[in-house]
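2024-03-11 09:14:02 INFO receiving multi-entity request
2024-03-11 09:14:02 INFO entity count = two
2024-03-11 09:14:03 INFO echoing inputs for audit
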Amino acid sequence: MTTIQQKSENPTAHLSADDIATLGRELDAIRQEVIDTRGAADAAYIRKVIKGQRGLEAGSRALLLASVFPPFWLAGTAGLSVAKILENMEIGHNVMHGQWDWMRDPKIHSTTWEWDNASPADQWKHGHNELHHTYTNVVGKDNDLGYGIMRVDEDQRWVPFYLAQPLWNFVNACFFEYGIAAYDLELGKNLAVPKDQRSDDFKARAKQTLKKIRQQATKDYLVHPALSLPTGSFVPTLAANFTANVVRNLWTHSVIMCGHFPEGVETFEKASIEGETRGEWYLRQMLGSANISGSPLMHLMTGNLSFQIEHHLFPDLPSNRYAEIAPKVKALFDKYELTYVSAPLPKQVYSAWHKIVRLSLPNDWLAETTPKNAPSQLVKLYKMTTGGKKVRRDIERKDQLKRRDMTKAA
Amino acid sequence: MTDMLARPSEARSLRHRLTRLAEAATTPLLPSDYLDLAAPLRSGTDLRARIVAVQPETRDAATIVLKPGADWSGHVPGQYVRIGIDVDGVREWRAYSLTHGPRADGLISITVKAVPGGKVSNHLVHEARARTLVHLEQATGDFVLDPAASRLLFVTAGSGVTPVVGMLRNLFPVTDSGVVDLPRSRHLDIVVVHVAPTEPDSIFLSNLQELAHHGAITLVPRYDDQHGVLDVADLTDLVPDLASRTTYACGPGGLLDALTAHHEAHGLPLFTEQFRAGFVEAGDGGTVTFADGTELVADGATPILDVGEAGGQLMPSGCRMGVCFGCVLPLTEGSVRDLRNGAITSVDPISSAHGGVPIQTCISAAAGACHLGATS
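2024-03-11 09:21:47 INFO inference complete, emitting structure
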């Protein structure tokens, strides 16, 4: 993708300032409608999910006490995986967004919730709710674009390091909760600072994260396996917990990649958000997000982040209401001739991964490669990888000229 | 000797270790988060109660009978209790008088009169159902009888009768066979001046009449539609031996203010109780008082976060547009207006004494004078 401002055809060019202001008011009205009808049924919903999740987790862990028996291991691991996914997605993510603060229940509140994840709630709320949701898809401000370790935009200059990004992304997916913790800590940026010059704030937050990781790891890899000792299930329980954590990580990583990575999602330039109006902010959220279509079960398991567009427009509305407003939001996309990016999970995951692979290589390298020219393309890639900055620029420039000639000829 | 000392501490440390182990197994939750799902009324957890029955008293009043959690530590007649109940999904807290003395079955009861427009009182009287779980705090309040006083005057108005009925029922229990005379109540001489708009609107009237008929109390009913609105100056005529009595009064602020002035002028002992402390009327802008005592003037259109920062307050902040909840602080007094849709959030004095209502300061403007608490 390219930032929207750099595109030859800006998909918002047909909208006047008045259009955007009206669009903003129409979205405000959708939001207000939900707020006016928020009530006992919504409260009952989140309590039911929390109760169900806790029951499933407790039941699964009870089965795992005898996980030396394979059927128990399988059922317990599957149950625990689902429980951890629900805990992170439909409950933790949404409670920490303040979606349920209106209930005034101090136990289901953004200020008190802590989740089963390596990143402490406070740090995650800052990194996610504040930075990512405010600066959605603004290149250079929203670190969720590539999580700061990947190239996800043609405008990011290619360096050989990116060749490994499919591998990075897979490793990140397996251990995603630690990736999030590192991300919320801004670990990369802080590790670059000499040890004695790191800020006290960073040191305090790192300590807090390590404590959280220690507690979560002790639970999954020591206490529960130890409780399974009487049946000789120490190792199977440990393996079950590890598996459940990896399954949860792979799932959440997939869902989250689908939110902003698939083809068709727009990115924005830093300068473009100066003095941004409410309508413009809404517009950016609309174009910067993508949905996953599917069944109610799919929506529950993604924490309703399958309605990423609706979630980004209204991050504080209760998640169970996104499905009901999605058709109204879609109607506004149609009315204003904007693209509502939505597709089933496999397609969106493929699209996101395809982009990761495509951008791990120099611009257009993948598209231009055919079985016939593969050897020469590989030679070019080898030269770019081993050649240093100057060689890369030369090859890029030559490619650009070649492409221009071809378009002219066509 | 040594053994006796060592054993409890060993038991304690074993229990401590088991607690630590249980916590390590459930982190980041607590073991109680799981146990509460199965046994919300058990000992050692937040105090709760289950509604056992809702008994209608008049057309707009009902007695709610509650089974309190195991840690309920009892009450003295005349005290009140704070109850948290979810109305339309929102947890609301209100204080109500306990209308029984301690009961043999361990249940407690409150009697609620539906106030016009009252969110919680109407819910309790008309919507509340048996088996509902409510949140509870220990009984509190100083409106209890002085054991030395034997000549008493109760002045009650409207639902102000509830704590008094609680006291009277404790002094003179009413059973199927009628009012029971207890030795502890034999020396008492009680007059009840009961004020209500009309006779059918009087909750507990039958109780009061039964006690009067039995001779336990002298009842002086005053109905606005029959006798006109009560003037406290007339009390001397209604209760000729007023000077020899200790007065307990419960009712609306106007009546209590008038009684206080009257009794002070005559040097008479008076105990009062008032619950329905009014909300501050929401306005447009006002003085914002911060946790450290700083007062800043805010208009009705500027977010409190901006007002605070401009005034040098160190405030938690985030997105500044209402989406990240990084700026939440408790509103402990007054009202604020949501700048996005004009919705007013107010806090009543009783909730304020218990931490207030959390608000997002980046999208809230002062709607009248308000006070903010510190981050938790």
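2024-03-11 09:21:48 INFO post-check: The radius of gyration of chain B is 25 Å.
2024-03-11 09:21:48 INFO post-check: Chain B touches chain A through 32 residues (CB under 8 Å).
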